[in-house]
């Protein structure tokens, strides 16, 4: 088995590895074991349990990585998601992998020369609605790093650390959080397929942009923090 570090993380975050077995199967490992003892025994344990629970509950939506299981109290694994992230394109056509230039795993070469089609965003919207029907929201869908374009233009969402269960919430709050997810879908749909949003979706996006611009606290906080650079390639 080979194991390659793809995200170094920090004191409060897991290290992320891409692993590959002798049979060619690939998976992702998120490991908190190298965090400080207090962190790995509190946040580490909680995040590993929580992400496994969420992804198992959402397996039938077709929008999450499969094969999730715990490797121990501080680590989990999930199937590697082939393809490239929407962040790797400015126009809808694959440009580069932000951390591994010119690399896109497991997709046909012709896909890398074609714009992301309308059907991808329709499938992403349907998947998000299935997630909402199951009683969860993603809440970090506006980050294009988390939206993967897979073989056959299949969408997959990764990084569910910000996700929340909504089945216990009052209706008005649940609907408000669901709007954040849907606005992320329409944001990318409008960017990569300009002019194709229906009038109803476009009005929804414009209203959501206004609320997010002025009232979304996490966005205000992140705007004051410089983004982290890509992790260095392992030696």
Describe this structure in words.
It is globular and about 50 Å long. A hairpin with a 3-residue loop joins strand 8 and strand 9. The longest helix has 22 residues. The chain has 2 domains: 80 residues, 2-Layer Sandwich (Phosphorylase Kinase, domain 1), CATH 3.30.200; 146 residues, Transferase(Phosphotransferase) domain 1 (Transferase(Phosphotransferase), domain 1). Helix 2 runs antiparallel to helix 3 and helix 3 crosses helix 4. Strands 1-2-3-5-4 form a 5-stranded antiparallel β-sheet, with helices on one face. It is an alpha+beta fold and 235 residues long.
Feature tags:
single chain, 235 residues, Transferase(Phosphotransferase), domain 1, three-stranded antiparallel β-sheet
Topology of this protein?
Blueprint lengths: L1 E6 L7 E6 L5 E6 L5 H21 L11 E4 L2 E5 L4 E2 L32 H16 L2 E2 L9 E4 L3 E4 L6 E2 L5 H22 L6 H17 L1 H7 L12
Antiparallel strand pairs: 1-2, 2-3, 3-5, 4-5, 6-8, 7-10, 8-9
Helix pairs in contact: 2-3, 3-4
Please provide a brief summary of the model.
This protein has helices at 37-57, 118-133, 171-192, 199-215, 217-223, and strands at residues 2-7, 15-20, 26-31, 69-72, 75-79, 84-85, 136-137, 147-150, 154-157, 164-165. It folds into two domains: 1-80, Phosphorylase Kinase, domain 1, CATH 3.30.200.20; 83-228, Transferase(Phosphotransferase) domain 1 (Transferase(Phosphotransferase), domain 1).
């Amino acid at each position: 088995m080979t194991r390659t570090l793809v995200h170094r993380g920090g004191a409060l975050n897991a290290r992320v590895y891409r692993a590959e077995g002798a049979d060619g199967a690939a998976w992702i490992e998120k490991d908190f074991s190298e965090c400080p003892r207090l962190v790995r025994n509190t946040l580490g344990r909680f995040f590993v349990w929580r992400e496994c629970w969420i992804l198992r509950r959402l397996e039938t939506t077709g929008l999450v990585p499969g094969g999730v299981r715990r490797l121990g109290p501080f680590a989990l694994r999930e199937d590697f998601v082939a393809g490239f992230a929407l962040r790797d394109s400015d126009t809808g056509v694959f440009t580069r992998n932000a951390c591994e230039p010119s690399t896109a795993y497991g997709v046909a070469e012709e896909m890398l020369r074609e714009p992301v089609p309308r059907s991808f965003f329709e499938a992403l919207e349907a998947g998000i609605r299935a997630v909402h029907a199951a009683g969860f929201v993603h809440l970090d869908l506006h980050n294009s790093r988390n939206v993967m374009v897979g073989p056959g233009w299949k969408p997959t969402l990764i990084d569910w650390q910000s996700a929340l269960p909504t089945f216990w919430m009052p209706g008005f709050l649940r609907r408000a959080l669901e709007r954040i997810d849907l606005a992320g879908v329409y944001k990318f749909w409008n960017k990569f397929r300009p002019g194709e949003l229906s009038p109803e979706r476009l009005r929804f996006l414009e209203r959501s942009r206004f609320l997010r611009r002025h009232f979304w606290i996490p966005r205000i906080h992140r705007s004051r923090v410089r983004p982290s650079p890509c992790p260095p390639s392992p030696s």
